[in-house]
């Protein structure tokens, strides 16, 4: 009985650790000013594959930053994603390339980047429009290199 209990506890701890992603704060700079977001960083294939699937709520200035560590063409979808999201494609220098606003929950329709990008920021659907975030605006954070 004790071995089973310890095994269950170990498995529960491992699965809980797998759910906890590193977090960072980024800022989005628009003509209206700057807004900060506390984001989880999906920096590996497994966390990027899961993304924000199955999440039922997210704080207004929270999100997920997908760091690809290099420039890539990428495509997102909303399979198993309950929340509508704004999907913001970001170049290596932190410039916003494009935004897919209010992506439809559960949709399997592809949402591609329009050019090679370094990262994607997912925030609550409608937040980009409400905050005046547009292509050409800048995102600052440790992964972005100004001037590149």
Outline:
With 148 residues, the chain is α+β, with helices and mostly antiparallel strands. The chain is built from three helices and nine strands.
What spatial form do the alpha-carbon principal axes imply?
A: globular
Beta-strand content bin: 35-45%
Residue windows where pLDDT falls under 50 for at least 5 positions: 1-18
Strands ordered across the widest β-sheet: 6-5-8-3-2-1-9
Q: Indicate the CATH topology.
A: Jelly Rolls
Number of helices: 3
Which CATH C-level class is it? Mainly Beta
Radius of gyration: 17 Å
User: Superfamily at the CATH H level?
Assistant: Protein of unknown function DUF192
Instruction: Using the 3D structure, state the CATH architecture.
Output: Sandwich
The tally of structural domains comes to 1
User: Which sheet architecture does the biggest sheet show?
Assistant: 7 strands, mixed
Helix content: 10-25%
Q: What is the SS-derived class?
A: alpha+beta
**Total E-strand runs:** 9
Task: Please give a structural write-up.
20% of the residues lie in helices and 39% in strands. It has 148 residues and is an alpha+beta fold. The protein has a single domain, classed as Jelly Rolls (Sandwich). The strands form two sheets. The protein has a seven-stranded mixed β-sheet. β2, α2 (45-50) and β3 form a beta-alpha-beta unit. It is globular. Mean pLDDT is 87; it is low at 1-18.
């Amino acid at each position: 009985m004790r071995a089973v209990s310890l095994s269950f506890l170990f498995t529960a701890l491992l699965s809980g650790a797998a759910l906890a992603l590193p977090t960072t704060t980024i800022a989005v700079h628009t003509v209206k000013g700057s807004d900060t977001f506390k984001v989880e960083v999906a920096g590996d294939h497994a966390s990027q594959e899961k993304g924000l699937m199955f999440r039922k709520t997210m704080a207004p200035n929270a999100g997920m930053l997908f760091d690809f560590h290099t420039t890539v063409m990428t495509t997102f979808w909303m399979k198993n994603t309950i929340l509508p999201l704004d999907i913001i494609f970001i170049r290596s220098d932190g410039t916003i390339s494009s935004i897919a606003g209010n992506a439809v929950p559960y949709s399997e329709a592809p949402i591609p980047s329009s050019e090679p990008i370094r990262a994607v920021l997912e925030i609550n659907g409608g937040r980009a429009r409400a905050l005046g975030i547009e292509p050409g605006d800048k995102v600052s954070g440790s992964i972005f290199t100004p001037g590149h």
